[in-house]
Write a structure and sequence with these properties.
The complex is a heterodimer of chains A (337) and B (264).
Chain A (H helix, E strand, L loop, with lengths): L1 E4 L1 H11 L3 E9 L10 E6 L17 H4 L3 E7 L4 E2 L7 E6 L1 H14 L7 H7 L2 E6 L10 H4 L9 E6 L2 E5 L3 H9 L3 E2 L32 H5 L5 H5 L6 E7 L7 E7 L20 H20 L9 H5 L6 H16 L2
Parallel strand pairs in A: 2-6, 6-7, 7-8
Antiparallel strand pairs in A: 1-9, 1-10, 2-3, 4-5, 4-12, 8-9, 11-12
Chain B lengths: L8 E10 L4 E7 L9 E6 L3 E11 L2 E7 L3 H6 L7 E8 L13 E6 L3 H13 L7 E7 L8 H10 L1 E6 L9 E2 L18 E5 L2 H13 L7 E4 L15 E2 L2 E2 H4 L2 E3 H4 L5
Parallel strand pairs in B: 7-8, 7-11, 8-9, 9-10, 11-12
Antiparallel strand pairs in B: 1-2, 1-6, 2-5, 3-4, 3-6, 4-5, 12-15, 13-14
Classes of the chains: A alpha+beta (337), B alpha/beta (264).
């Protein structure tokens, strides 16, 4: 069901959500950039629709609002382990179609791929999604190539218009609000981009043979294995378990899981000093192949959603989409044709 | 509601068997389904968790042979009989004994690699009617690094045992040389049907498998077990992933036809 909604009406709706939900959206953090005197667009809680940044891409993904960077699994005392209570409120998260596609990847990892994850499930079951229509593509986006420029599983979709917002609201409970506050009904479909400046073509014959290609060697030097690409990626889910304690005698503390990066040293370390993928080029190959090859072997569709955030964040100007476009030559090189 | 699989349970240490200065077997209270080759996440609050493979299974206990090489395992060694450790698991697929029933069996293991196969060796040692000829080739660095000395005494009466050390003097009990040295001379009734298990450090596994293939073993009759960092054991944390494979879920035991495709 579609509506034309003005800012005031939108804010009323947001106010009504407050009791049950925290609302997260891309916001502008003044001076929050890694560069001096520059702002950062990342996820934060909002009260009003004008807080939402629609005209820029968020540097960090919605993942921050959904999966805590550091999550306490349980507290321990000498005798007991106590699981912290679930968040009091659910969450409403504003995100674009690439990111909504990423939610499916997170679901498949945490709810599938082995047993269902207790901590993810209890957060996920209380999240509602607001799709932000995309009227234009940003520079590094390649959602069209990855087939993530459309999304359907949303509770509400919002397109920005000069005189307000065009809203599609499949969530019936929410739709009642817009009906009752006098929003004009109109058919609304999510704005979406149909062409990106960045295009990616993956070779159809892509296989693990490409491990042997020379293209990876370049990243031994160029990549500084800082892991930023993993932390901005909406589909990266890896974590590491971590114990910490509050008291001198170490008897009281907590076990956490914290985001981890396959690019950073220590990711594969086993007891006694063994480790795998020591070169940065090997790590790059591991990450790239996970995003566009082996995840698909396991789940039937690509992990990468083409949001391009890894391109934007890389301090060495390494372009992930460029690597994807080099895979074809890589396959030619190893197959000798 | 979804079960919280990250919560460990306390398990009492029933016995501690000292093999070397840095390798002890902790006999832990446990009742439940468990197979050799599977692993537990063993933890001590404040120090963290470590994946430890099952080296023995008995009524109401599992043996965990632990090498003192890290933050967690250092602390485990400060615990004694009667103390408790936290555990969760078992995880992984483990060895399926059915794959080796009625067959000739060769097991090649290096160092702590003997732990995950100890259950397999003991079971087929105690049940000779369940298999044909059996040879184990086990390698350790030196005499003081030999694990499971008591088991070896029993195993020597049950099967063909080759115990070899990297360096030192050859004696009646052990030979000198890498495990690969003894593969070409393996005496087998029918190599095309014989099964082999290889567990140990990556280089040792690679060269042992090469040796077995050269000796005429079929790829599908070779089994390997991989050691990787496993933070969660549940297919989530990503540390043990190799290509499309999660060692904690799909392994750690792999048939070599699959194992050979795993490139880190």
């Amino acid at each position: 069901m579609g509506f034309h909604v003005n800012a005031q009406q939108f804010d009323q709706w947001l106010a009504g959500l407050k009791e049950d939900y925290d609302v997260y959206a891309p916001v502008c953090i003044r001076g929050g950039s890694i560069y001096s005197d520059a702002d950062c667009i990342r996820y934060g809680k909002i009260d009003r629709i004008e807080d939402v940044v629609f005209d820029k891409k968020s540097e960090y993904s919605f993942k921050e609002a959904m999966i805590p960077v550091s999550e306490t699994l349980f507290y321990f005392t000498e005798e007991d382990c106590t699981v912290p209570p679930a968040r009091k409120k659910g969450a409403v998260i504003f995100l674009r179609s690439c990111d909504l596609s990423a939610v499916q990847r997170l679901d498949d990892m945490y709810l599938g791929n082995g047993p269902e994850d207790f901590y993810y499930e209890r957060i996920r079951s209380r999240i509602r999604f607001v799709l932000m229509g995309c009227s234009k593509s940003f520079d590094s986006c390649f959602c069209v190539s990855m087939g993530t420029n459309t999304a359907s599983r949303y509770d509400l979709c919002v397109n920005v218009r000069t005189d307000g917002f065009a809203v599609d609201c499949p969530n019936r409970e929410w739709a009642e609000f817009f009906m009752h506050c006098g929003c004009e009904e109109q058919p609304v479909t999510p704005d979406r981009v149909t062409e990106n400046r960045t295009k990616v073509t993956l070779p159809e014959n892509l296989s693990t043979e490409v491990y042997r290609a020379s293209l990876w060697d370049e990243y031994n030097k160029r990549c500084i294995n800082c892991g930023r690409c993993n932390f901005v990626c909406p589909t990266c889910t890896c974590f590491t378990m971590q114990d910490l304690f509050y008291t001198e005698n170490g008897k009281v503390g907590e076990r956490r899981r914290v985001w981890a990066s396959c690019m950073v040293d220590g990711f594969t370390d086993v007891a006694g000093g063994g480790s795998y993928r020591k070169k940065n080029g090997e790590r790059m190959r591991f990450k790239v192949m996970h995003k566009v090859f082996d995840y698909k072997e396991r789940n039937g569709y690509h992990m990468c959603v083409g949001c391009g955030r890894c391109d934007d964040i890389c301090p060495e100007y390494i372009s992930f989409s460029r690597i994807l476009n080099r895979l074809e030559d890589g396959m030619k090189e190893v197959s000798g044709s | 509601m979804t079960q919280n699989r990250y919560l460990p349970f306390p398990s009492r240490i029933l016995d501690v068997i000292k093999h070397t200065d840095i390798e002890y077997t902790f006999r832990m209270e446990f009742s439940g389904e468990v197979k050799p080759g599977q692993f537990f996440e063993v933890s001590i609050p404040k120090y963290g968790e470590a994946p430890i493979s099952v080296s023995g299974i008995g009524e109401n206990y599992v043996d965990l042979t632990i090498r003192r090489v890290g933050k967690v395992t250092n602390e485990v060694f400060e615990h004694y009989t009667g103390d408790t450790l936290l555990m969760r698991g078992p995880y992984g697929n483990g060895f399926d004994l059915d794959n080796y029933r009625g067959k000739e069996l060769v097991i090649i293991a290096g160092g702590t690699g003997v732990s995950p196969v100890r259950g397999v060796i003991s079971w087929f040692g105690d049940h000779p009617e369940e298999r044909k000829g059996m040879t184990i080739i086990t390698g350790f660095k030196s005499e003081k690094d030999i694990l499971f000395k008591e088991d070896f005494r029993r195993w020597r009466n049950q099967m063909n045992v080759i115990l070899t050390l990297d360096a030192g003097e050859e004696t009646e009990d052990h030979k000198i040389g890498l495990v690969t040295k003894f593969i070409p001379d393996l005496e087998l009734a029918d190599v095309s049907l014989a099964q082999a298990i290889v567990v140990g450090p990556p280089a040792m596994m690679r060269f042992s498998v090469q040796g077995l293939l050269a000796r005429g073993f079929k790829e599908e009759n070779i089994w390997v077990s991989h050691e990787r960092k496993m933070c969660c054991g549940l297919g989530k944390c990503g540390h043990c992933k190799i290509g499309d494979t999660y060692v904690c879920l799909d392994g750690p035991v792999f048939n070599y036809t699959k194992g050979k495709t795993l490139i880190d």
